[in-house]
Amino acid sequence: MTMEISKDQINQEHSASGLLIQSIPGSYGIPFFSIIIDRLNFYYFQGHMAYFKSHITKHNSTVVRLNVPPGPFISSDSRVVALLDAVSSRVLLDSSKVEKNNTFTGTYVPSLSLYSGIRPSGFLDTTDPLHTSLKTLYLRLLVSRKMHFIPCFREVYYSVFDQIDKGLSSSGPIEFDKLNDTAAFDYACRALFGCALPSVSIGPSAADKASKWILFQLHPLLSNLSSLPWLLEHLLLHNFRLPPFLVRSEYKLLEAYFSDASKSVLDQAEQLGISRHVALHNIIFFTTVNAFLGFKIMFALILKRLAQAGPILHDKLRQEVRSVVHSDKGSVTPSNLENMHLVKSFVSEVLRLNPPLEYQYGRARTDLIIESHDRAYKVKKGEMLFGFLPIAGRDEKVFTNGEEFIPNRFVGEEGQKLLKYVYWSNGMENAEPGANDKQCAGKDVALLLGRTFVAELFLRYDTFIADVGALPESKIMFKSVMKASAN
Fold first, then answer.
1. Contact yes or no for 49/401 (Cβ under 8 A)
2. Distances from the Cα of 114 to the Cαs of 104, 129, 210, 215, 253, in angstroms?
3. Fewer C-beta within 10 Å: the chain N or C terminus?
4. What is the CA radius of gyration of the chain?
5. Percent of the chain at pLDDT above 70?
6. Smallest Cα–Cα separation from 300: which of 150, 479, 472?
7. How far apart are CA 351 and CA 424, in angstroms?
C-alpha cells in the first residue's frame, strides 16, 4: 500500500530520539485577571493537584503553558512552561540546561533583608563560584558529622516518644506536630554542630521563631495555614510581601545563636574564601530552611503514612527492623539500615508521593528541545520552566498504579531502577550530590534519618493508632501505642 506524504509532513522537525516536535499547548490568558483566577483555583477552588491535572486533561499534554502563583503584586511574571511528567521534568535537574539564579522560590525572590542583605545559596546558580564554595562547605560539614546523626536522633526523639507515652497515659490523645517542631529544630542544630539545643539556648519557642522566619520567606506559596477564612488568608499571604521588620527580632536571636554554635564551621568557611558574614547567614538558611523544615515535614509525612497503613504494614516493618537489629549490634546503625529493604522502600515511597519540596523552577540556558514520553517541544532561552514533583512522581507510564501507595515498590532490582525517577531532592534519588549541582547536599542524610525514624519507632512500639486528616497538611494525633513485645 502506497501512502502519499505531504510537504508539511516532510518538513516537520523531530527530536534526537525521533519524537515529533510540537508547539507547547496552553495559554496565559488575560494579563493580571487570569493569574488572579488561576491563583484562587490553585490555592482554594481546585487545589494544587487538581489545578495541574485539569490543564493536562484540557490540553492532552503533560507539557503546558500556564500561570503559577503568587502573581500580582508579589511576582511580576507568573508565566511558566509546566513539565508535568517524570521524563520532561528531568531537565530541571540538569544544571547544563537550566539556570537556577533566583529561582529557589520560583517567580519571586524574598526580600534580601530577611538574610541580612546576602543571597543564600539556594538562590545562586551553579555557575556562581560562591555556590560551589558554599556547597563544598555543606558537604564537608555533613561528612564530618556523619557519626553523630543517629546518636543525636536518639537523644532528641526518644524524648518525643517519652512525651507521647506520658501524655497518652495521663491525658489521652496527644498531638505529634508541636513536639516534632521543637525536636526537629533541636535535632538539626545538635546533629550539625554538636551545640547546645536551641530550645535551651534561645528558649522553648526557638522552633516557633525559626518557623516564623521561614513563613516570611515562603508565605506567597503557602495556603490553609490556619482557621482564617480563605479570603482573608488570601489577602494577607498572596497579594503583598509581609514586611521583614516584623521578624527582625526573631532573626537576631537566630543570628546570635548560630554565630556561637557554628564557630568551627565559620572558620572552615574562611579557609574556603567565604566571608564570615556570608557564611553565617548561609548556615542559618541551610540549617533552618533545608534541614529543620525538611526534617519536620518528612517525619510528619512518614508518620501519617504509617498511621493510614495500619497494623498489617506495622507488623511487616517491625519484623524486618527487629530481625536486622537483633542479628547485628542490637541497635540501629547506618550499615544495618541498608539491610532493611522494606523500610528503605517505604521511605522512598513516602517521598515519591509527598516530597517535602514540591516545586522546581529553572530558566532555560539556551533554546531547548524538551521531550516527554511521546512528544517533543521547543523552549526558548530564558523561559521559566516549572515542575510539580507530586504529579511527576505519580506518572503512570513510569510507576505502575502511580496514585497508589505501595510500600514495597522499590524492593528488588527492578524496584531499585525506579529510584532514578524519584526527584524529591532536586536530583535523582540514586544520584550523589556534588558541589557543582543543585541536588540537596543532605539527600543521603535525609534518607538515613527517615529510615532511622521508622526503625526506632518499631523498636519501641509494636503498633500505634493515630488520627490524621488529608495529606499533606493535616495534624497527627496519637490515640494509642502498643509497647514493644518480646519478639
1. no
2. 15, 23, 12, 11, 13
3. N
4. 23
5. 96
6. 472
7. 6
Beta strands in 176-290 (DSSP E): none
User: Nine-digit cell at 181?
Assistant: 517542631
Q: If phi over 0 gives left and psi between -120 and 50 gives alpha, with beta otherwise, what is residue 482?
A: beta
Coil, strand or helix: which one is 465? strand
pTM: 0.95
What Cα–Cα distance (Å) separates residue 445 from each residue in 38, 138, 231, 377, 438?
37, 12, 39, 36, 16
Q: How far apart are the first and last CA of the chain?
A: 71
Q: How many CB atoms lie within 10 A of CB 291?
A: 26
159 residue type, one letter: S
CB-side neighbour CA atoms (13 Å) of 466: 27
> H or E element: which one contains 312?
helix 311-326
Dump pLDDT digits (tens) for 356-401: 989 999 999 999 999 999 999 999 999 999 999 999 999 999 999 9
Q: Which of 3, 331, 273 is CA-nearest to residue 151?
A: 331
| All three cell numbers of 160 | 518525643
> Which amino acid type is present at position 410?
F
